[in-house]
Amino acid sequence: MGAGRWGNPLLLLAALVLVLGRHQQWPGFQDSESPKNVNATLAFFLENYNNNSNDSYLFGVDRLLRSQVQLTTGVEYLITVKLSRTKCKRNSTKKRSCPIQTKKNLKKSFICDFLVYTLPWMNHYQLWNNSCLDV
């Protein structure tokens, strides 16, 4: 049973939802005005992503595409980011900045949407939802 000329329809639908979702404002969310809290949330997500990745290289934030916030019992961040493979190997023990990979055969990037619930005053973060697509 082939998928026909449109390929996998579920994959096509998922890509469409992800692309259209970037241009809509989610109800209750506003553009974030706090770089400090966004950076801490990005660091949490990146650590979570790298810990769950099977790639032999670490990934880093290449570009912040969107950051929205909603106040509830805590703070919810809805963030869209471009992640790219870095030059740092996963097992590297040195704490240093990891530049984005420049070798053509090693380049790899994703666009990720994620929702994090946080109580920043308690340094508590929970990843509620995330999805990433190859770029």
From TrEMBL:
PANTHER family in alphabetical order: CYSTATIN-LIKE 1 (PTHR47887)
Name of the protein: Cystatin domain-containing protein
Organism of origin: Muntiacus reevesi (Reeves' muntjac)
N-terminal signal peptide: 1-21
SUPFAM superfamilies: Cystatin/monellin
Key words, A-Z: Disulfide bond, Signal
GO terms of molecular function: cysteine-type endopeptidase inhibitor activity
Lineage: Eukaryota, Metazoa, Chordata, Craniata, Vertebrata
Family per record: Belongs to the cystatin family.
InterPro entries named among the record's database cross-references: CSTL1, Cystatin_dom, Cystatin_sf
Segments forming domain Cystatin: 24-133
Domain of life: Eukaryota
